[in-house]
Amino acid sequence: MQTADKSAPVNIGISEQDRKEIAEGLSRLLADTYTLYLKTHYFHWNVTGPMFHSLHNMFETEYTELAVAVDDIAERIRTIGYPAPGSYSEFAELSSIPETRGVPEATEMVRLLVEANEAVVRTAREAFPAAERANDESSVDLLTERMRTHEKTAWMLRSMLK
């Protein structure tokens, strides 16, 4: 991770070391969120079968929400004084979500998205303590909202597998 910009130091009541640790956690969350965005969009394009219409629409709703989320996460990283990662290679290094090659069947797409959403929750949960220790309520709020969103999405997707 690049260091903070020294030309106009960030002075928001959170130490540079704490901001760095928070930015590292948020960068992993950004990578997971972007990877999930790509996977969801890919599945949206390629889903087939009896659930086509409902899954195609559901995936579109999800990747649209994720597009907003990646912007929110990246802007939070910038707000606390660090550059946001943005290359495929950086995301591949930082993400905990495996790439999907080939086109899985619709139910496998759903299962893979359950796993990926839960991975994002775990990544957000891992980043949470640093933000909480630093009294970074803005990052805590962002992490809480991301966990809530991905837990609910995983539940809804999992319900389709019954």
TrEMBL record:
GO terms for molecular function: ferric iron binding; oxidoreductase activity, acting on metal ions. Belongs to the Dps family. PROSITE patterns: DPS_1, DPS_2. Residues 24-161 form the Ferritin/DPS domain. This is Ferritin-like domain subfamily. It comes from the Bacteria.
